[in-house]
Design a protein that fits this description.
6-stranded parallel β-sheet, 5 helices, 38% helix
Length: 146
């Protein structure tokens, strides 16, 4: 049995819609590379768990109660600067995508495309690249990924 060259990636999944959180977790649990260390359903809880759990990777929705995803991302990038943040959202607005990526996120995946793009987004982001869903409206300087 070959050794896994990299330690498992510690993941925090944040979405106020529990069935979608379960979907993301079940996708990641199929690989030994990922360890789900926590889940949160609102922005303030996400911020608290990020600080407490120090994850390597955070999946974040934009439309969250208490504290929206953009603001939560901005604060998380200061609290856990080493964590990579990937937005997984229904929001396809170019201005929102720009705001997300300029507030600390490394990836932006549309929920409609999560089945096909979530794992490629993770790979890209963990390698230090930026990932934006192919269906995101590419206006105003947002370039598509790969």
């Amino acid at each position: 049995m070959p050794n896994n060259p990299r330690p498992s990636v510690r993941v925090l999944v944040v979405d106020d819609y529990e069935p979608f959180r379960r979907f993301v977790c079940s996708m990641l649990e199929q690989s030994p590379d990922f360890q789900i260390v926590g889940e949160a359903s609102d922005g303030l809880e996400a911020l608290q768990k990020a600080e407490e759990l120090n994850p390597d990777l955070i999946f974040l929705d934009i439309g969250l109660p208490e504290l929206n995803g953009i603001e939560a991302c901005h604060r998380m990038s200061r609290v856990v600067p080493a964590a990579k943040i990937i937005f997984v959202t229904q929001n396809n607005d170019a201005e929102t995508v720009r705001a997300a990526l300029s507030n600390g996120a490394s990836g932006y995946v549309l929920k409609l495309d999560a089945n096909n793009e979530l794992l490629p987004a993770v790979e890209a982001v963990l390698q230090g690249d930026r990932f934006v869903s192919t269906r995101v409206k590419h206006g105003g300087g947002i370039a598509p990924s790969g």
